[in-house]
Each structure stands twice: as structure tokens, then as C-alpha cells.
Fold:
Amino acid sequence: YVLTRTWTAVDDCGNENTAIQIITVEDTEAPELLNVPENITSECTEIPEVPVAGEVTATDNCDTEVTVIFNEDSTPNGCGEQITRTWTATDACGNSTVATQEISVSDTEAPTITNVPADITVECDAVPLSANPDVEDNCDTEVSISVEDIRTDGECSFSYVLTRTWTAVDDCGNENTAIQIITVEDTEAPELLNVPENIVSECTEIPEVPVAGEVTATDNCDTEVTVIFNEDSTPNGCGEQITRT
Structure:
């Protein structure tokens, strides 16, 4: 505004004179923002709350009721984000001041894998299929998980150790693994099929030896069981005892 300051001098006879000073008053000074938080780096689960209304304030050389307006923007930043919080203080004459807080959000924490099957020992025909463990991450809601089986051979082809490894990787490349050791063994003997029953025979009616492949064997693990035949004869009074094995 403009302040017109006038002095008036009057003598005893009523003669008067005036003098004037013109004071042009202006407000060109912007407000000052107070209590604006500093820039920080934060994990995605530790982003600070926005200061409550009235916590970030402003003072001004003229205006005692400065308006403070808050705004927040987020920009993807690789596997995280960049949060910009902005406070703008404007006085009655339109002078304004802007202050910002930059929050760099990152993810340095690996996913967790739970409900992983315990180590077990099984027969070769009972190796379990891969389970689906639970995966959680502090930031990523869709964690990638893969599974790999590594076989370490033992004494025979049906005796080995299976190392089953699950690997979980989040969007930021943080990874975690969980392992199940499956010890595979074959302790079950084959079962012979079509073995002829014990008989009593006249010497002229001794049955022929079953042809190869007639007596067979099945096994819980091995699909190509070797069957070996042997025959022994022992004198038995006026006859003999034939043992076919």
C-alpha cells in the first residue's frame, strides 16, 4: 500500500502550511519454511509418514497467517521409487517459497522361504514331487521362485542323494535359497514270478526247465532285473533230489 504522511503547521493567526511524505509499502520477501524433513534413503517398509498438518510451518516478515500447501509425487527408480514431498508457503502478496524432501526407496532385503519340506529318506519308487513352499518379500508381491534337483549317485543306480533347491528372487535381485535333502535307497528285493511248485516225479517224467523268460521278476525300482538259473542234483536213496534255483 501507499502511506501518505502529512504534517500541518498553524500559527496563532490561523496561517497554516503542510508538508507531505509518501511512504510506499511493499512485501517482496518470501516466507520461510520450518521443520521440513531432510532427504533420506529408506527401505520400502520404512517409508516415514507424512508430517501431520501444522508440523511443517512458515514464518513471514509481514503475513502472520501464511498458507502452507503439501504435495507428494512418486517416480519409479529401478527396483524402487523416488518419493518427492513438496511444501509450498505463500504469503498474502503472492511471495512463495518451495521446500522438498527426497526419499530414495530401495529394497535390500531378500525374500523369505517357509514351509520347506524336511529332509527325508525314501525308497526309489517313492521320491516326492517338488512341493510349493511359501514365499514372502518385504516389497515385492510377486516373487519369482524356481526349483532345481541335483543328483549325487550312490552305490547303485537306485541309491542316490537328491538335493532339491528352491531359489526366490525379488524385483531388486535379492535372492534366498532353501534346500531339502532326499536320500533315495533301494532296500526292497525283487519278486520272482512263475516259479514252478515243488513236485514228486517219476524219473521218466521230470519236467523240462522253464524256458528263459518264463520265470521273471519284478522290482519296485529296477525294470530290468537279472534272473539267473541254477540246478543241483543230490542222490536220494534209489532216486535223486533236484533243486532248481
